[in-house]
Amino acid sequence: MSLDKEMQELLVNYTIESAELLQVMEEGLMELESIEESEETINAIFRAAHTIKGGAGIFGFEHIVGFTHVVESVLDAMRDGLLKVDSELVAALLPCCDHLGILVREIAKGHTEENSDLTKQSEKIIAGLQPFLDNAEGKQTDSSQVASQSIQVQDETHRVQNIECDNSKSGNWHLFLHFNPDCLRDGMDPLSFILYLTKLGEIIELTTSTQALPSAGEMDPESNYLIFEIVFKSDAEKADIENVFDFVRAGSQIHILPLESKIEYYIDLIDSLESDDMQLGELLIKCGVITRRELEEGLQAQQAKRERQQSQHIGDILIEQQTVQKPIVSAALEKQQRVKESKAIENQSIRVDAGRLDILIDLIGELVIAGASASLRASQTGDMALQEANAAVISLVEEVRDSALQLRMVPIGSTFSRFQRVVRDVSKELGKDIKLHISGADTEIDKSVVEKIGDPLMHLVRNAMDHGIEPAQLRIERDKPAQGNLQLNAYHSSGNIVIEVSDDGRGLDRDKILAKAVERGLIQVGETLSDQEVYSLIFEPGFSTADQISNLSGRGVGMDVVKRNITELRGDIAIDSTPGKGTTLRIYLPLTLAIIDGFLVGVGESSYVIPLDRVVECVALPPNENHDYMELRGEVLPFIRLRQLFNKKATLSKRQNVIVVEHLGVKAGLVVDKLKGELQTVIKPLGKLFGHVQGVGGSTILGSGEVALIIDVPTLLRQQEFASNTH
Amino acid sequence: MQTLALESELNIFNAAEQKPRLLEFLECDEELEVDLANVSEIDTAGLQLLILIKREAMKAGKKLKFVMHSQAVLNVLELTNLTGTFGDQVVLSSDEE
Predict the structure, then answer these.
(1) Between residues A292 and B92, which one has the greater pLDDT?
(2) Cross-chain CB nearest to A216 (options B23, B80, B86)
(3) Which residues from chain B sit within 8 angstroms of residue A192, using beta carbons?
(4) Is A239 within 8 Å of A254 (Cβ atoms)?
(5) How close is the nearest chain A Cα to the Cα of B1, in Å?
(6) pLDDT at A488
(7) Strand pairing partners for A659?
(8) Helix, strand, coil shares of chain A as percentages rounded to 5?
(9) Which of A156, A248, A571, A601 could bond to A566 as cystine, CB 3.0-4.6 Å?
C-alpha cells in the first residue's frame, strides 16, 4: 500500500471518527443543559474536542487545530469550574460543533486547504466565545488569590514534610498528631497512644512541636498543646494504625499519610491494580492509602458542601483533609480515566463496510434456500439419519441467520438523541418551550431502516412542534403546563417495531380536515368516516390546511412523502388524536427487511408465502360458503380468495383453508387451497417491471427450486377495504 | 542557686497545682535547678509544664536546669525525642543527662 493511499485511509477514518465525536460533543452539550452533575459530561466533551484536535494536528489541518484549540480552552475553563455551565454557554458552544462538522466534512470532500469563507466563519464563532474566555481568565486570577490564602494550610503540610531526613527512607507512614485539647482532662494521655503505636511498628523519627504552647499566663495546665509528628515504619494496614487513635479522634487532627518517598510506591500500586470501573475512593482504599472511615468523612464533607451549593471533587477533599497527597490522587484519577477509556474502547464496535455485511446477508440468504432444498431432498429419501443431520444443519442455519441479521441491528437511540438538538433549535425558532422525552432508545432496528426513517421522523417532529403544540400563552389559557412535551418512543410489538411521536398539543381538528377533504373532492359530502379514516386523510398528497403554514412547513417532505417513505420500508403509519390533549403518530416497521419467517401456502399449482408474524390462526373454510365473509367466534371475518385474486384456474381442492391475518388491529382471512407449513424466507425484491403490482411484497425461492410470491398483507388488506368501500 | 525537688507525680492530676508552684519558683533566683529524681510518673501534662518553665526561664534570661532525671522522665523524653532538645529554641546543656 502506498503511503498516499495509507494516508487516504487514515483520513477517511479520521473524518468518520470526528463525525462520531462531534455527535458525542453535541449530545453532551445538550445534556449539560439538563443535568446537574456535569463533570463527567464536560470531560467527555473535552476529550472529544481534544481527539479531533489531535487528529487534525497529525494531518496538519492547522485551521481545525486553531479553531478547536479555542473551543478546548473554553471547555477547559468549564472543567476547572471557572465558567458556569448555563444555556448561554451551551448556545455559544453548539455552533462550534456545527462549524467543526462543516470543517471536517470539507476535508472528507477532499478540500484539505482552508478556504477564506470558512475561515471568516471560524473567526466569527471564536469571537463569540471570547467573552467566556475573558470571563474565565478573570476568575483565574481570583482563584489564585484564594490559593494564596490557603497557603497557610499548605504550610503545615510542608512542615510535616520537613522532618523527612535520611531516616525516613526506612519508614513508610507519616503521622501528624494534634490531639484534642481536652484529651488530658478526658483521661487520655497522648504519650500513651504514642507508646501504644510502638507496638505496631517502629518510630523512626519523632518531633514534638511546642509552638502551640501559649505563654505561662494563658496556659491551662490541663489542656493539651503538644503536636507530634512521627515517621513510622510498620507493616500494619493504614486502618490498623488509624484504629490506635479511635478514642481520641473526636476533636483531634490526626493525619496519616504515606511518606513522600513512598508516594511512588503507591502510584505504582495504583497502576498495577486490576480494577474495573472503580470509584476513586474505592481505588484508594484498595491500595491501602486511605481507610474507609476517611473516605466516609470525605464524602460527608462533600455532601455538606453540596448542600451549600458548592461542589468539590472527592479527591480534592481528601487532599484538603490531609488524608492523602495529591500525586496519589492524581495517579488514581489517571488510572480511573484509563480504565474508562479502555472500557470505552471495548465497547466500541468494529467498523465494517456495509457492503461486506450485505454480501454476508445475501450469502446467508442463499444458505437458507440451499438448506431448504437439502432438507426437502432428505425427506424424500426417507433416510432418517440424513434427515436428522439435515435438521441440525437447518437449526444452525437459523441461528446464523438470526445473528447475521442482528449484525445489522442498531439501537434507535442515536437517531432519537439527534432530535434533542432539533427540538431545542426549532423550539427557539418558534418561540415555544418544548421538552423532548425519549424512551425505548435501546430498541433495535435494522440499520437500513434507521437510515431511512430519519427524514420522515424529522418531518413528524417538526410538524408536532409547529402545528401540534400550542404557543405557551394558549397552553396556559387551556390549563396546560406552559412547557410543551414531545415524546419519542420505540418498542417491539408482534414482529413490528413501533416508533411513536406524540405531543400534548391541540390534537387534530377533525372537522377542519373533513372540510378540506370535501373541498378537494377526496370524499363526498355526508360520507361517514371513522376517526382513523379522517386522520389518515392528512397523508393525501398536497393535503394541508391553509392556516397552518409557517416557515417550517414546506421544508423537505410533506405528510404524503412521509407515508410513502414508510410504505417503502414495508411499514405503516397510524394516527391517534384527542382534541385538546394531543396527537400520537405510530410508525409500524417490519423488524427486518431481508429474511423473514414465512408461512407457505398453496393456491392451485402455485405457492405463496405469508409473513408468519402476520398470521394469527388457520381455520377450515366452511363448506358451501359463497359469501366473502364467514363467522369466526361470533365475529364477522371478511376474507379474500387468493384463487380469485391471482386468477388460478386449477381444480378446486376438496378442503379449503382460511388463514387469519392481522394488521393494525384489522383481521381478515385469506382463502388458500393447501397449508404447507412454516419456512424461512429470503426476500428477493421483484424486478422494477413489477413495481406497480399491489399485494405482493417480493419473491423467494423454495427448497424445490420453485419461486413463490410473498404476500404483502397490509397492502392486500387496504385494497380489500378500499374495494369494499367503493362497492 | 535555688533547687526545687519535685515529688512523686507530675501529671494531669496535679498539673493545676504544680503550674503556679513552678512559675513561683522561677521568680526566686537567676540560676535554678529542678530535681526530677523523685518524679515517679509523668504524662503529657507534666511534660508540658517542664517545657513551659524552661521556656519562661529562657524568656526571662534565667538559667534553668533539670537534674537527676528519674527513669520515668527519661522514658518520656526519649519517646518524645526531647532528650536533647526542649522545644525548637531551647538547647539544653549536657548536664541534664
Answers:
(1) A292
(2) B23
(3) 43
(4) no
(5) 22
(6) 92
(7) A618, A670
(8) 50, 20, 30
(9) A571
Half-sphere exposure of A30 (CA within 13 A, CB side): 19
A222 contact residues in B (CB cutoff 8 A) = 12, 15-16, 45
With CB atoms and an 8 Å threshold, state whether A222 touches B16: yes
Cβ A221–B45 below 8 Å, yes or no? Answer: yes
Residue whose C-alpha is closest to residue A238's, from A285, A169, A295, A299: A285
Query: Which residue from A34, A30, A31, A37 is spatially nearest to A311, judged by alpha carbons?
Result: A37
Beta carbons of A583 and A507 less than 8 angstroms apart: yes
* d(C-alpha A292, C-alpha A295), whole Å: 5
Instruction: Mean pLDDT check: name the lowest of A696-700, A717-721, B12-16, B54-58.
Output: A717-721
The grid cell for A230 is 512521627
Say if residues A441 and A500 touch (Cβ distance below 8 Å).
no
SS (H, E, C) A3-69: HHHHHHHHHHHHHHHHHHHHHHHHHHHHHHHHCCCCHHHHHHHHHHHHHHHHHHHHHCCHHHHHHHH
**Which grid cell sits at A313?**
471533587
First and final C-alpha spacing in chain B: 19
For residue A724, the model assigns a pLDDT of 61
Residue pairs between chains A and B whose CB atoms are closer than 8 Å: 73
Angle at A638 between CA A633 and CA A644, to 5 degrees: 135
| Residue A81, CA atoms < 13 Å, CB-side half-sphere | 8
Amino acid at A596: I
Q: What are phi and psi of A613, to 5 degrees?
A: -70, -10
Q: What are the cell numbers at A83?
A: 465558567
The whole-angstrom separation of Cα A67 and Cα A98 is: 12
Query: Which residue type occupies A290?
Result: I
Domain B2-96: CATH superfamily, name plus number: STAS domain (3.30.750.24)
Residue A562: name the closest of A583, A586, A591 by CA. A586
DSSP A609: E
* Statement: residue B3 has pLDDT above 50: yes
CA distances from A286 to A174, A292, A598 (A): 19, 10, 57
Q: What is the pLDDT of residue B93?
A: 37
Residue A574, CA atoms < 13 Å, CB-side half-sphere: 14
The DSSP line for A395-424 is HHHHHHHHHHHHHTEEETHHHHHHHHHHHH
Helices (H), A292-412: 292-307, 314-320, 326-347, 354-381, 384-407
Pairing of strands B63-67, B31-35: parallel
Q: How far is A228 from chain B (nearest CA, A)?
A: 8
Instruction: Write down the pLDDT at residue A500.
Output: 92
Dihedrals phi, psi of A480, to nearest 5 degrees: -110, 155
Looking at residue A655, its amino acid is R
Between CA A78 and CA A80 the distance in angstroms is 5
8 Å CB contact of A206 and B76: no
The set of cell numbers assigned to A101 is 462538522
Q: Which three cell numbers stand for residue A590?
A: 417490519
Q: Where are the domains of chain B?
A: 2-96
Q: Look at B45 and A190 and tell me if their CB atoms are within 8 Å.
A: no
- The enclosing H or E element of A77 equals helix A62-79
3-state secondary structure A672-692: ECEEEEEEEEECECCCHHHCC
* A655 and A620 Cβ atoms separated by less than 8 Å: yes
What cell does A499 get?
A: 416508533
- One-letter amino acid at A493 equals S
Residues of chain A with pLDDT under 50: 1, 143-169, 546-557
